[in-house]
Amino acid sequence: MAQAQAAATSVTLTVNGEPKTLDVAPWETLLDLLRERLRLTGAKKGCDQGQCGACTVLVDGRRVNSCLQLAVMRDGCEITTIEGLGGPDELHPMQAAFVKHDAFQCGYCTPGQICSAVGMIREGHAETSDEIRELMSGNLCRCGAYTNILDAVEEVLAERNAPKLEAAE
Amino acid sequence: MNRFSYLRASSVSEAVEAVAGDPAARFIAGGTNLVDLMKYDVERPGRLVDITRLPLNGIEKTPGGGVKIGALVPNSDLAYDDRIRRDYPLLSSAILAGASAQLRNAATTGGNLLQRTRCYYFYDVGTPCNKREPGSGCSAIGGETRIHAILGASDSCIATHPSDMCVALSALEAVVHVQGPRGDRTIPFADFHRLPGDQPEKDNTLEHGEMVTAVELPAPRFGRHHTYLKLRDRLSYAFALVSVAAAIELDGDNIGKARVALGGVAHKPWRDADAEASLKGVLPSSSAFADFADRLLSGARGQGENDFKIELARRAIVRALGQAASGTPQVQSVKQVN
Amino acid sequence: MSNVHPYVGRAQPRVDGPLKVSGLARYSAEFAADDLVYAAAVPSTIAKGRIVRIDASAAQSAPGVVEILTHENRPNMPAEDEPYKADMVAVPGGPFRPLRDDRIWFSGQPAALVIADTHENARHAATLVKVEYEALTPEVDVSNARDRAYDPPEKRNGIPPPPPPRGDAEATFKGSVIRLEEEYRVSAEHHNPMELQATTVEWDDGRLVIHNKTQGVNNPKNYVCSVFGLDPEAVQVSTPFVGGAFGMALRPHYDLTLAVMAALKLKRSVRLVLTRGQMYTMGWRPDTLQTVALSAGEDGRLTSVRHEVIQATSQFEDYQEPTVNWSGLVYDCPNVTLGHKLAKVDTSTPSDMRAPGATLGMFALETAMDELSYKLKLDPLELRLKNYAEADQNDGKPFSSKELKAAYETGAERFRWSKRSPEPRSMKEGRELVGYGMATGCWEAMMQPHGASAALTADGRLEVACGTADIGTGTYTILTQIGADAFSMPIEEVTALVGDTRLPMAPVEGGSWAAASAGNAVRLACAALKEELVKRARGLDDSPLANASVDHVVFRDGRIALASDENVAVSYAKLLGAAEGGRIEAMAKFAPDKEFAEKFSSYTHSAVFAEVRVDEELGVVRVERIVSAIAAGKILNLATARSQILGGVVMGIGMALHEETKWDKRLGRIVNANLGEYHVPAHADVKNIDVIFVDEEDDANPLGVKGLGEIGIVGAAAAIGNAVFHATGRRVRHLPITIDKLL
C-alpha cells in the first residue's frame, strides 16, 4: 500500500489509579484499548457509536462514551472504569445499590449505567426522579430495568445528599 | 476507520495551518460525531488535528454585555454555566434537550455547530449520497424520509441539521468567530449554515482550514419569555422530528420582538425575519401565533412520509410561542409539554 | 442457619450480581486467547442478486491482514442443507450459510470475512474489500407480497399450527349485528440485546473452546460439529454470561460459522464481534398483517372469532410462530376460525422474539376486544370476564391452573380501574388527555427435558449444574436457591453453573421453560445426591446411619443426621474424605410429565392495565403507569421474577410507541439499523410499573413453576394502545403509535 502507516504515539493514561504508558495508533478508541489491550472488559461495547451508553467510563471524573474517544487524545487523563469503582467483595455504594434493587438482568449495560450514575451524582444536577430519568437516558437497558435503576440511584443520591452533594469517591 | 495521521496542535495558528495546508486534514475536538462517522467510513480524513489542548474553553463577558463562548467549552459545561442559565436559559435548555449527558460532556461548542446530518443514506456508504459523494445522487428522495427536510431542501439533498443547540443560537442571533489561514472573521449565525442547493456537501460557509474559535451572544433580552420545545420519537436521547426555539421581548402586553427558529426541518436552523417582524406589536394569542406559523411554514413541502412534520411544526410553533409569551418555558426533564 | 430457609419464594438478590456490577462477568467477546486474531465481516450492499466480482487486493495488502475469506476461497463445507439443520430451533427450509456462493439473499449478508492481527486492522481492511454486484429488485414489504401468501407446507417442529375451525365462524359473523372486522399490523422489530453478537474461538491444537453468544451452548456445539465434521469431544462451548438475547441467540448465527471456519483454516484463535448494524441481519420479529373478526350477542358473549395472519418470512426458510392460536383459547367461543400464512420477502429469516406469536396475536385480539367493548358499551374488563374461558377449547382440555380472574381483580384494584370513566376523551389532566386501557396476556407454560447435576465439593460446598443458560433471567440465582433449600445450606455455600457443554445436557433457554425445567432437574439432582450420600453413609465402617434411608434423615449443618435423633449423624467431611477426588456427585434428568400434559393445558396469564397521557395537539404519548398482574404458578424468586415482568412491559412500551425497523423499499436496506434511529425505550420513557403475582397452585411439575420470560410483554402493547384510544378516541391499528399517527 502506498499510504504510510501513521506512527503510533506513546501516551500515558492513569487507569483506575495506575499509570500506563502505551503506544497507541491514532484510530484506536479508548474502549477498544481498555477491552482488548488492558483486558478491562467491564466497559462494554453495545453499539460502538455513542448510541447506547454501555461503554460509559469516567475520564477525569466526567462520564463519557469511551467508544467515541480516540485514546491518543486522552494522553495524560485519568480513566476510571467499573473495575476501578469496586470489586465484588468491596462494592462501591452504587454497585451495591444496583445489586440490592436488582437494577439489571443480563448485566451488559450495567457497568455503563453505574459509571454514568456515579458521574451524574458528581455533576450535581439530578435531584428529582424526572431529572434522574432524563440524565440517565444516555444508558439504554434492553432488559428494561429502568425502574429498579431509578430506585438504586435514588437511594445512593439520598445518602450522598445527607450533608450536600460532594465529589463521590 | 481509515488510516490517518495525528497531530496535537499547540496553538490555533498551528492547527489552522496544519489543516489549511492539507485538503484531507480535519480538526477534531470532542469527536462525538466525527469518530462516529469515521467508523461508518463516511468520513475518511487523512490527518486529524487535535485542538482539544488549545485555550478556547472560557466563557467571557463582552463589552457589549453579551458573552463569548470558547469553541472548546463542552456542551454540558455551557448548559450548566451559571451565567448562561441566568441570562440565556433558552440556550441551556436547548443543549439539555440534545443527545445524552455523556455526549454533552464530550461534545464541544464548536463541534456542535459542525455536526453533520443524521440522514440514513448519508450514513450508509452502500447508497449514493450527494452530501457524502457529490454527484452520486440523493437516495433519500423517494426513500424513507421521516427525518428529512420540509423547508429549504433541493433536488440534490433533503437532509436536516440535527443540532438542538444551534436552533437556540439561531434564535439568539449568535455570531460565530472563526480563524482561518487568511485571518479572523465573524459570521452571523444565520449565514453560518447553508441550504443544500446544488452543493449539499457543504454544510456551512467555512472555508477549508477555518476553525471556529468562539460563539458570541448579544446581550440578553428575553427574560423568561423563551422556550425550547422538542418533539421526537421517544422522550429522550433522540433527534428532533421538529423543534422550536422561541424568544419574545414584550412591549407592554404586546410583542416587541420575536425570534423563532425551527430544528429538524431543514439543512439549517430555520428562521424567517419577515415573519418574525409581523409579530411586532401583536397581542400574544393562539390565532396570532397560528398566523405566524403559517407564514414561517409558507414554503414547506413534504417528501411524502414526512408530510406530517408540516402540521407538527405548525402546532409546535403555536405551543412554543404560547410558552414563551406566558414565561413558562419547557423544562427538558419534564416530559409533559406545558 | 436453617431459619433462613426456604430461599425459594423470596426476593433473593441475584447471585451473579456482584460479578456483573463490578464488570467481571465475562461475555463472549471478552475471553482472552494467545495468538488471537480478529475477524470482521464485509456486509453486502444489495438485498438481492449476485456477487459478480470481489477485489480483495487492497484489503489483502492492508496492515495486519492475515486472511480474507470469500465464497471463492473458503474451506470446503458440506454442499447439502442437512448438516446445517443441526439446530434445535431450525425452521423448515434451507438454513442460511455464510459465504456459501455468490447469491445474495438479504442486505447486509456477509460477502467476505477479513481476519487481521487487531480489531482495528480487521475493521479497516474490511472497508477496502471491493465487491461488485449484479442487483435485482428486492421486495421487503409483506403487504406487497400479500397476494403470494401461502400455507407453509412443512410445519415448524414444536410450534403448533392453528387448530382446525370449530363451529361456523363465518356464517355466525355474517348473521351478527354486533361485529367488527379490522386489520392490525405491528411493524417489524429487532431484538437489540445490548451485547453485540460475538464469537471467540480458542484454538488449542485442534481442540476448540468456543465462546458464542447463545441461549443454549449445546445448540452451537451440535451445529459446528455437524457442519465442520468435528469430534464432539474436541469441542466445548462455554458461555457463562449472555448480554440479553430475547430469542435472538436461539439459533446459530453466521458469527459462529465464520469464526469457527477461520479458526480451523488458520489453526488460530479467532474473535468475531459483529457490529450493531450487522445484528439487524439475523432474526427479527416478522412484519405481520392480521385480520381479526369478532361478533357478539347483546349479552356481550362472543359468538364468533376469526383471526388470520400473513407473516413475513425469508426466501429460503419458512419461519413460523403461533400467532393466532391464542384467539381460540383465551375466550370462550363456540365458532372459531384461525389461519396462518406466510409471504416471502428479501430479508433474513425472522426469528423468535420474546413471546413469539403471542406478542403479535394477542395485540390484535386484545385490541379487537377493546373495540368490541365500545360497540357493546361494556367495560373492557367486564367483557373479558363475560367471556372467561374455563377450558382450552383448542384442544378440549381443562387448564392445569388458571388464576386469571384473580389477576384481573387484583390488577384492577391496584390500578383503580373503577375510576375510569367509560367514554373516550372524558378524562383529562391539565392539557393532557388521560386514558385507561387494559388487555389480557397469555403464554404457554412449557417444559423440556433437562439434565442436571448436584455435587458436594471438597470444600464442603454444594455445586448444582445444568447446561442451560442465564440470559439475564436469573437462572443462576434460582438454581442456587433450589440447591440451598434442598440441603438447608446458606446460599453463600452453594454455587450454580450454567452455560457450558461440559455440564449436563439442556436445550436452548427459550419459551420460558428454563425455570421449570432446569429448576426441577436441579431439584431431582439434589434428591439423587441425597440418596448417594445416604448410601455412602450407610456403607461406612460402623456407620451410625447403617440402617438409615433418605426418608429418615435430615441434611443440615454439613451433616446427615437421623430425623429422630440429630445427634446420630455423619458429616459431609467424612464422606468427602472417603470419596474419590474429594467430590460426590449425582446426576438426574427431568422430563415433563406426559400423562399430565395429555390431560391438561398449561398457560401463564396476565392482566395488564395502562394509563397514558396524550398531548393530543402534538401527538405526544406518555405511559404514566402500568400494572401487570401475573398468574404464573409458583414464583421462585420475587426479585428476578419481578424484573422479568418489568422487562417485558418495557419492551411492550417500545412495541406500542417506538419500535419499528424501517427498510428502504427500493433498496431493501434497513435504514435504521442502529440504536440511534431504532428507538428502544430510554429511561425517560418509563415511569411507574407495578408488578403483581397472584397465587396460583399448579401441578404440572413438582416445583409448581410455569416460567416468566415471555408473559410480561404479552398484552402490554394492546393495553397501551387501548389506553390511547380511551384517551383520544383514535384507534391506531398499526404499531408503533408514533406522533404522526395521532396528529
From TrEMBL, chain A:
Q: By what name is this protein known?
A: 2Fe-2S iron-sulfur cluster binding domain-containing protein
Could you tell me which residue ranges the 2Fe-2S ferredoxin-type domain spans?
Answer: 9-85
Keyword vocabulary terms for this entry? Iron, Metal-binding, Oxidoreductase
Q: Which PANTHER family match?
A: OXIDOREDUCTASE WITH IRON-SULFUR SUBUNIT, OXIDOREDUCTASE, IRON-SULPHUR BINDING SUBUNIT-RELATED-RELATED
Domain of life, source organism:
Bacteria
What is the species of this protein?
Answer: Chelatococcus sambhunathii
Q: Which Pfam families match?
A: Fer2, Fer2_2
InterPro entries in the cross-refs: 2Fe-2S-bd (IPR002888), 2Fe-2S-bd_dom_sf (IPR036884), 2Fe-2S_ferredoxin-like_sf (IPR036010), 2Fe-2S_ferredoxin-type (IPR001041), 2Fe2S_fd_BS (IPR006058), Aldehyde_Oxdr_Iron-Sulfur (IPR052914), Beta-grasp_dom_sf (IPR012675)
TrEMBL record, chain B:
Domain FAD-binding PCMH-type residues, every copy: 1-222
Keywords in alphabetical order: FAD, Flavoprotein
InterPro entries, per this entry?
CO_DH_flav_C, CO_DH_flav_C_dom_sf, Diverse_Substr_Oxidored, FAD-bd_PCMH, FAD-bd_PCMH-like_sf, FAD-bd_PCMH_sub1, FAD-bd_PCMH_sub2, Mopterin_DH_FAD-bd
Q: Which Gene3D superfamilies match?
A: 3.30.465.10, CO dehydrogenase flavoprotein, C-terminal domain, Uridine Diphospho-n-acetylenolpyruvylglucosamine Reductase, domain 2
Q: Which PANTHER family match?
A: OXIDOREDUCTASE (PTHR42659:SF1), XANTHINE DEHYDROGENASE SUBUNIT C-RELATED (PTHR42659)
Name of the protein in its database record: Xanthine dehydrogenase family protein subunit M
From TrEMBL, chain C:
Q: Where is this region: Disordered?
A: 142-169
- Pfam entry (one): MoCoBD_2
Report domain Aldehyde oxidase/xanthine dehydrogenase a/b hammerhead positions. Answer: 22-137
- Superkingdom to which the source organism belongs: Bacteria
Q: Biased-composition ranges for Basic and acidic residues?
A: 144-157
Entry's InterPro entries? Ald_Oxase/Xan_DH_a/b, Ald_Oxase/Xan_DH_a/b_sf, Ald_Oxase/xanthine_DH-like, AldOxase/xan_DH_MoCoBD1, AldOxase/xan_DH_MoCoBD2, AldOxase/xan_DH_Mopterin-bd_sf
Q: What is this protein called?
A: Xanthine dehydrogenase family protein molybdopterin-binding subunit
